[in-house]
Design brief:
Blueprint: H1 9-22, E1 26-29, H2 34-46, E2 50-52, E3 60-62, E4 76-78, H3 83-86, H4 95-106, E5 114-122, E6 131-137, H5 140-149, E7 151-152, H6 154-160, E8 167-172, E9 196-200, E10 205-209, H7 214-217, H8 220-236, E11 239-241, E12 244-249, E13 255-261, H9 268-272, E14 282-287, E15 291-295, E16 301-304, E17 309-313, H10 319-328, E18 334-336, E19 339-341, E20 346-347, E21 359-361, E22 367-369, E23 388-392, E24 409-417, E25 427-429, H11 433-442, E26 444-446, E27 459-461, H12 474-484, E28 495-499, H13 519-529, E29 535-538, E30 541-544, H14 558-564, H15 569-583, H16 593-608
Parallel strand pairs: 1-5, 3-18, 4-9, 6-8, 8-10, 13-24, 24-28
Antiparallel strand pairs: 2-3, 5-6, 5-7, 9-10, 11-15, 12-13, 12-14, 15-16, 16-24, 17-23, 18-23, 19-20, 19-21, 21-22, 25-28, 26-27, 29-30
The protein binds sulfoacetic acid and manganese (II) ion.
Manganese (II) ion binds next to loops.
Length: 609
């Protein structure tokens, strides 16, 4: 399609305005068709950027520049009018100043390239919960990824009509080409100090420059669906959350939907695609990363998955850690920064088998002897630790039939979790909504040797798993959660649970098998939502009654389960002290009084016991 095919005056004007600054060689409006996807992929394969995979139909491997392998939090900005509105946990720059810098960078930045206009919808087109965006990009790789991750094309333009609302998302890889120059198969991007991932929340505007990777460039995901949407949600009275969405069916055929927020590296995608080990139970996937939730007429919260695909971490994904993910990526998948084996297939660390053949090409593009082990020393990985697959959600065997229901699914429970070797029990339920918000506000994972800068053993808290993704002050975000709890009657609100699959014993061994067996905890949570008589009240909340977690066929000794489900009073006292002295002060006087009251009430309950 061409620019004159756009009937929406504001979109057309914005594209023209952008083109006048970025000066692309051509402008192309995406229709979202398979033919368009195939043509762009072919061009990228011919240019040497993409490598088709013999073993996986319609699948292509890309290798990025070593400087462009993940989200760049240090270069991510919330440029609200007032610094206070971005809050202490976001990087703020004055929006006028930032626009001046970035306008300079955007000038002529698309020379030698095509400017693609991507009309996209976050969520099923026409849903009351969905939102439209327009991404302008000079990267065909971004167009193809957006095809998978969102709903793209003519149908979105039709939905927008002549004056529908949309979020403006501008992206340039920041590598203009001189006449006659070409990328020659190299990944285009700018130097680190010229990368900017910028959000202008008041204008519902995203400007990204210099990176072509993941959340820096696929602007529908973290930039729109979390950072900008969290601001919209605050203003409009709904929730935009970094949460997976599950459908659970019990042996009687009764269905419930739950969402869950976990900091990174807690196995969220694995949980989203879990194959249960408890007999008679069924778990299906609605989403693996983001949930948008609005109150329905019945006073319950309804969630949609705003995305249409999975952008998952590849390393350690295997038939045993996540069979459904492995099935989802058998065809029509984009791989980025994975290894390539002699037989024309991808490979990564802990994929569950060794690569076929004598050599592999690593994510740098270097030929190496095939590894003899499934893991590699740090820094010598075949696949980059943040290597990704981009796969259509509809290819997932566990995808629920209603995953695209425009009405969304009614949510019965929220799970919050983290990677905590001690203190936090396997599962407990909050006493009420505000206590649940308190739990969400303190989740985090213990720092392991993987992070050099922090003290090992400290808890790095990531409230609601939203710290890098909230587009406004986290203190105001907590307040928004407290306010959300007042919008309906307590019985209609989702119940809130704190789970921890990562407890370790004195020898440092995991006490709980995790993965598929987490379904045993999901079953308990499900029954709690039915007010089952399966809990006892403790100082920290409701916990499983002895015998109410099914461990049949599990290699977990009763005394270990007992320890997993005990209140560690001394541990909690330390937890309270850390929250009071180190965590909450970060948010200054914006911490809602309801949360400091919850902290004190918990302390009082524990000291009475
Ligand atoms: O790169 S993404 O932001 O899409 C994924 C992630 O970092 O969580
Ligand atoms: Mn995520």
């Amino acid at each position: 399609m061409e620019i004159n095919d756009i009937k929406h005056k504001k979109i057309k004007a914005w594209v023209e305005e952008t083109a006048a600054i970025c000066r692309p060689d051509a402008i192309y409006v995406c229709d979202g068709s398979q033919a368009e996807y195939d043509r762009l992929m072919d061009e990228m394969i011919k240019s040497g950027l993409g490598t088709p995979l013999k073993k996986r139909p319609s699948s292509v491997l890309f290798r990025s520049d070593p400087s462009d392998v993940a989200r760049v939090e240090d270069r991510t900005y919330i440029a609200s009018a007032k610094e206070e509105d971005a809050g202490p946990t976001n990087h703020w720059i004055d929006p006028n100043e930032l626009k001046k810098i970035m306008s300079g960078l955007y000038t002529d930045s698309m020379k030698g390239r095509t400017l693609y206009v991507i009309p996209f919808s976050m969520g099923p087109i026409g849903s009351q919960i969905s939102k439209n965006g327009i991404e302008i990009t000079d990267s065909a790789y971004v167009v193809c990824n957006m095809h998978i991750m969102t709903r793209v094309g003519t149908k979105v333009l039709e939905n927008l009509g002549e004056d529908g609302e949309f979020v403006k998302c501008l992206h340039s890889v920041g590598k203009p080409l001189a006449s006659g120059q070409a990328d020659n198969g190299t990944w285009p991007c700018a130097d680190m100090e010229h990368k900017y991932i910028s959000h202008f929340p008041e204008e519902r505007l995203i400007w990204s420059y210099g990176s072509g990777y993941g959340g820096n460039a696929l602007l529908g995901k973290k930039c729109f669906a979390l950072r900008i949407a969290s601001v919209l949600a605050r203003d409009e009275g709904w929730l935009a959350e970094h949460m997976l969405i599950l459908k659970i069916t019990n042996p009687k055929g009764e269905v419930k939907y739950i969402t869950g927020a976990f900091p990174s590296a807690c196995g969220k995608t694995n949980l989203a695609m879990l194959i249960p080990t408890v007999p008679g139970w069924k778990v299906e996937t609605i989403g693996d990363d983001i949930a948008w939730m609005k109150f329905g007429k019945d006073g319950r919260l309804y969630a949609i998955n705003p995305e249409a695909g999975f952008f998952g971490v590849a390393p350690e994904t295997s038939d045993s850690s996540n069979k459904n993910a492995m099935e989802s990526i058998k065809q029509n998948t984009i791989f980025t920064n994975c290894g390539l084996s002699d037989d024309g297939d991808i490979w990564w660390e802990k994929i569950g088998y060794l690569p076929k053949g004598e050599s592999v090409i690593d994510w740098h593009g270097k030929k190496r002897p095939a590894p003899l082990k499934e893991s590699s020393p740090k820094g010598e990985e075949i696949a980059h630790p943040n290597a990704r697959f981009t796969a259509p959600a509809k290819q997932c065997p566990s995808i629920a039939s209603e995953w695209e229901d425009p009405a969304g699914v009614p949510i019965s429970a929220f799970l919050f979790g983290g990677r905590r070797p001690s203190t936090i029990p396997l599962v407990h339920q909050s006493r009420n909504w505000n206590h649940g918000v308190f739990i969400g506000s303190i989740i985090g994972s213990e720092v392991t040797a993987a992070v050099i800068s922090d003290k090992i053993g400290q808890v790095r808290r990531d409230p609601f798993a939203m710290l890098p993704f909230c587009g406004y002050h986290m203190g105001d975000y907590f307040k928004h959660w407290i306010e959300t709890g007042k919008k309906t009657t307590p019985d209609k609100l989702p119940k809130i649970f704190y789970v921890n699959w990562f407890r370790k014993d004195k020898e440092g061994n995991f006490m709980w098998p995790g993965y598929k067996d987490n379904s045993r905890i999901l079953a308990w949570v499900f029954d709690r939502c039915n007010e089952a008589d399966n809990a006892v009240e403790t100082e920290i909340g409701f916990m499983p009654k002895p015998g109410s977690i099914n461990i049949d066929g599990l290699d977990v000794k009763p005394e270990v389960l007992k320890e997993l489900l005990e209140v560690d009073r001394e541990g909690w006292k330390k937890e309270i002290q850390d929250v009071r002295e180190n965590h909450y002060p970060k948010f200054g006087n914006k911490i809602p009084k309801e949360l400091t009251e919850e902290l004190s009430a918990l302390e009082a309950r524990l000291s009475k016991a």
